[in-house]
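User: tokens in, sequence out, please.
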């Protein structure tokens, strides 16, 4: 009986000895995690307020400029001024003149189309009329925010102020007005009653409804930014800290168990599959020709990455590229693309120095140590010059102004050409693009498809072309599928194009063969002459 009691006491002591450090680790990890996630939520809410403040400032400045045209608000001079404002603004999508609940003229469609706005949702204490969810015929799937001062208004993307925290899409974000009970703009789970918790304070953080919530007051307007970070982020931080504080032996056992479970789960997950594909080098490239619209010559190609799984299934990049970006694999992927370009093209660029290859790069590549050296190593292996590579980065990839200016400057100094890809789908303005060192502007296929359809978006192409000309950029139109589109673009001064009209993506040997076939008739004619 005594032996049993001793054994039981020993067991209890052992359990306590193991349980106490675990309990202490959990308590400390929860405190540290709450502080970290509170700062996390506050950062998002402050960013929302900064965006909202800048949006309001730009709308007010635009209206002040247009007041000089109040007697003839839809005159050609007034519309030209609207378009100048549009080009120079980083947050305003368009501006226009308002009569009642209609916009007779605007920077985006001129006076050719009257835009219906509908009644205002509310009037702010400063006199601004706010419409929160206006839909326009040129973008029927999108909702726009229209902010009106007097007889002029700014048109804004409804989600522009909350276009942050992209790597954590389940974070709730909102802009709230103290003059209206519903959010001006919102994403994810946001309770409007959270605004009341602010009281008279400039900012507040609290836990409610499964979220850590931060509310930050605007110092410029009767508005506030709200960010709601799900508690699973706090639990993740708490778990990490707790593991570091548990005794080494127990930590090793837990880590081993978690690692086995993690590997078992990840084996079926797409991020693990992408990682495996990189390790097994399952990626390959197809090349789409880029054509000179005036001569019809193929002057280059864009390298398009594909993934062939062991089953033979082809996975397209719009599925696995975002996964690679979100899981820190995009730098490895870009390096494999460069290696594959070397293997595919050999010394073709050395023998044809006027030919170029466009390669898509990510913002993460710009931050990667040795990125420029890797580019130069690729060129050495091919015997090519830096100008033979065009580095293509999306418009959203250049949103960080400091990184964008530094990177574009460094790449240009090393002789590489830089193109802004899918232009027209983001928020770039003329003034911002002027600060970057760019060579090419690629017009997104969505705008090319509208050419000749009579849709309001068909006018946007001309708007983009004028912007590129003002910046002195060469233009490449994407997704050209008809001769009518090609003729229109050539007459408008667009130099280059790519799309199914000229050639679908193909292996590089097929590119070379097609180019030889195109030059053989010319050589035969020359010999006959």
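Assistant: Sequence out:
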């Amino acid at each position: 009986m005594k032996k049993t009691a001793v054994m039981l006491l020993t067991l209890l002591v052992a359990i306590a000895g193991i349980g106490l450090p675990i309990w202490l680790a959990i308590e400390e990890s929860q405190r540290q995690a709450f502080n970290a996630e509170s700062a996390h939520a506050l950062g998002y809410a402050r960013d929302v307020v900064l965006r909202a403040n800048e949006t309001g400032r730009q709308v007010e400045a635009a209206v002040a400029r247009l007041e000089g045209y109040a007697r003839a608000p839809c005159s050609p001079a007034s519309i030209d001024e609207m378009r100048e404002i549009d080009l120079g603004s980083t947050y305003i999508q368009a501006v226009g003149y308002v009569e009642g609940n209609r916009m007779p003229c605007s920077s985006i469609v001129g006076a050719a189309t009257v835009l219906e706005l509908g009644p205002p949702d509310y009037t702010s204490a400063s006199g601004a009329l706010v419409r929160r969810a206006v839909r326009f015929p040129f973008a029927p799937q999108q909702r726009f925010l229209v902010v009106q001062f007097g007889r002029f208004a700014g048109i804004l993307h409804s989600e522009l102020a909350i276009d942050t925290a992209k790597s954590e899409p389940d974070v709730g974000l909102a802009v709230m007005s103290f003059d209206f009970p519903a959010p001006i703009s919102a994403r994810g789970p946001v309770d409007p009653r959270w605004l009341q918790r602010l009281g008279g304070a400039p900012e507040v953080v609290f836990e409610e409804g499964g979220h850590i919530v931060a509310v930050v007051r605007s110092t410029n307007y009767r508005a506030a930014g709200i960010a709601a970070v799900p508690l699973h982020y706090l639990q993740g931080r708490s778990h990490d800290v707790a593991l570091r504080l548990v005794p080494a032996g127990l930590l090793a056992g837990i880590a081993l168990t978690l690692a086995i479970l993690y590997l078992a789960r990840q084996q079926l997950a797409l991020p693990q599959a992408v990682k495996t594909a990189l390790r097994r080098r399952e990626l390959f490239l197809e090349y789409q020709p880029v054509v000179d619209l005036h001569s019809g010559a193929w002057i280059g190609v864009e390298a398009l990455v594909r993934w062939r799984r062991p089953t033979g299934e082809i996975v397209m990049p719009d599925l696995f590229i975002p996964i690679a970006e979100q899981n820190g694999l995009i730098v490895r992927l870009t390096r494999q693309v460069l290696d594959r370009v070397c293997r595919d093209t050999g010394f073709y660029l050395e023998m044809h120095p006027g030919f170029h290859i466009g390669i898509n790069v990510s913002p993460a590549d710009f931050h990667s140590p040795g990125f420029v050296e890797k580019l130069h190593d690729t060129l050495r292996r091919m015997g090519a010059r830096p100008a033979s590579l065009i580095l293509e980065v999306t418009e959203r990839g250049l949103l960080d102004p400091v990184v964008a200016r530094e990177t574009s400057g460094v790449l240009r100094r090393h002789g590489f050409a830089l193109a802004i890809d899918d232009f027209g789908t983001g928020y770039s303005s003329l003034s911002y693009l002027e600060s970057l060192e760019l060579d090419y502007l690629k017009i997104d296929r969505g705008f090319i498809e509208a050419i000749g359809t009579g849709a309001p978006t068909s006018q946007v192409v001309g708007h983009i072309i004028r912007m590129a000309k003002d910046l002195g950029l060469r233009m490449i139109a994407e997704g050209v599928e008809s001769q009518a589109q090609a003729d229109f673009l050539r007459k408008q001064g667009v130099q280059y194009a790519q799309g199914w009209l000229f050639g679908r993506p193909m292996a590089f040997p097929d590119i070379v063969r097609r180019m030889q076939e195109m030059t053989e008739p010319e050589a035969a004619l020359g010999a006959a002459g």
